[in-house]
């Protein structure tokens, strides 16, 4: 009987051992949770490559040159005029590292904006090579511009016509690490089978291919000079491959840049604060660029009706053949601040750009 009682009772040593083990497990769990929470909280303040405060401008940051690729269509021209207006407004504000500005016009011929916006004319791709995908002219335009232009700045911002500077933009790049905006729909890992056609396994793991496009990107001029020809060739190869063309569609050229960068061993600092995209991003905050690529459709209650033309709407595609008129109506109450700000910025630009009414419908 005594033997049974002894075997059924835990010894003090065993209790201490169990308590210590429980403490260790609890401590490790709490540490893991706290580390995870700290990591999530810090994502808004630190980038994943260079541990540098988000929005914390370095003293004596090198300036960057803004390069805006564009066609000579009315649709492209009115967007370029608004973009250039806000560049001039923000360029010399505190916190800005903006340098010179060039519209890289890939039509092959001068147009009516030559005297309004600093422009370099380059050739389009040979007829038929883009297969109706005009964006393929972008990498070819950069190849030509980098060869023929004199660019004083060490860095270049690759921008697009539907960008509006909403806050002064500092140089977000850091040394040989360019800065880029991560797009949620660029998913190299999910397209590994296709990406491996252009980025073979011996080049490295799939996560070397950043989830980005070429714009917005701030990058050293010397690095872009190496990447641009590869970007052009990879994009043309992708367009020529039916499987890749079908999978990537209108973002094919973005994947082309991401792959070309990886082939050159270039990793980007991913900055979510680089850009916002109404109506999905609701607040402007301290972000730097508004990208108005999505249509903004709302009913008069301020409710989003995406996919259905709203009672109130702003969509750049409504103005394919002529620019929007001055003094667009503001959205109804309840619409996100980012959409309201976008319309206000467009209205301010069109009110102050000379001759805007001459090109209106």
UniProtKB/TrEMBL annotation:
Main location: membrane
Keyword Hydrolase on entry: no
PANTHER family the record matches: HYDROXYPROLINE O-ARABINOSYLTRANSFERASE RDN1 (PTHR31485:SF4), PEPTIDYL SERINE ALPHA-GALACTOSYLTRANSFERASE (PTHR31485)
Name recorded for this polypeptide: Hydroxyproline O-arabinosyltransferase-like domain-containing protein
GO cellular component terms attached to this protein's record: membrane
Annotated localization: Membrane
Keywords noted in UniProt: Glycosyltransferase, Membrane, Transferase, Transmembrane, Transmembrane helix
Location of the Hydroxyproline O-arabinosyltransferase-like domain: 64-357
TM stretches of this protein: none
Gene Ontology MF terms: glycosyltransferase activity
InterPro entries: HPAT-like (IPR056508), HPAT/SRGT1-like (IPR044845)
Keyword Membrane recorded: yes
Pfam families: HPAT
Organism from which the protein derives: Buddleja alternifolia
Top-level taxon: Eukaryota
Entry membrane topology: Single-pass membrane protein
């Amino acid at each position: 009987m005594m033997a049974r009682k002894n075997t059924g009772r835990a010894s003090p040593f065993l209790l201490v051992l169990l308590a210590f083990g429980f403490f260790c497990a609890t401590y490790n769990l709490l540490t893991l949770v706290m580390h995870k929470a700290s990591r999530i909280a810090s994502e808004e303040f630190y980038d994943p490559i260079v541990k540098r405060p988000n929005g914390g401008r370095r003293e004596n940051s090198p300036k960057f040159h803004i390069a805006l690729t564009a066609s000579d269509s009315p649709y492209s021209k009115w967007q370029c005029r608004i973009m250039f207006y806000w560049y001039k407004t923000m360029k010399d504000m505190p916190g800005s590292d903006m340098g010179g500005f060039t519209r890289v016009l890939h039509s092959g011929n001068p147009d009516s904006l030559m005297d309004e916006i600093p422009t370099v004319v380059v050739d389009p791709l040979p007829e038929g090579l883009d297969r109706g995908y005009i964006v393929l002219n972008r990498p070819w335009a950069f190849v030509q511009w980098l060869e023929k232009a004199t660019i004083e700045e060490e860095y270049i911002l690759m921008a697009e016509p539907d960008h509006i500077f909403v806050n002064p933009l500092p140089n977000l790049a850091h040394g040989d690490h360019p800065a880029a905006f991560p797009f949620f729909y660029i998913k190299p890992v999910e397209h590994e089978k296709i990406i491996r056609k252009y980025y073979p396994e011996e080049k490295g793991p799939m996560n070397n291919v950043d989830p980005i496009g070429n714009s917005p990107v701030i990058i050293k001029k010397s690095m872009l000079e190496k990447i641009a020809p590869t970007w052009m060739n990879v994009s043309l190869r992708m367009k020529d491959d039916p499987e890749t063309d079908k999978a990537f569609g209108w973002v094919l050229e973005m994947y082309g840049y991401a792959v070309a960068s990886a082939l050159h061993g270039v990793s980007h600092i991913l900055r979510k604060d680089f850009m916002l995209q109404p109506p999905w991003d609701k607040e402007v905050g301290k972000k730097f660029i508004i990208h108005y690529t999505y249509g903004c459709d709302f009913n008069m209650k301020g409710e989003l009706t995406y996919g259905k033309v709203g009672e109130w709407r702003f969509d750049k595609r409504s103005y394919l053949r002529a620019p929007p008129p001055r003094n667009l109506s503001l959205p109804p109450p309840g619409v996100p601040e980012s959409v309201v700000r976008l319309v206000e910025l467009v209205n301010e630009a069109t009110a102050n750009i000379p001759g805007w009414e001459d090109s209106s419908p």
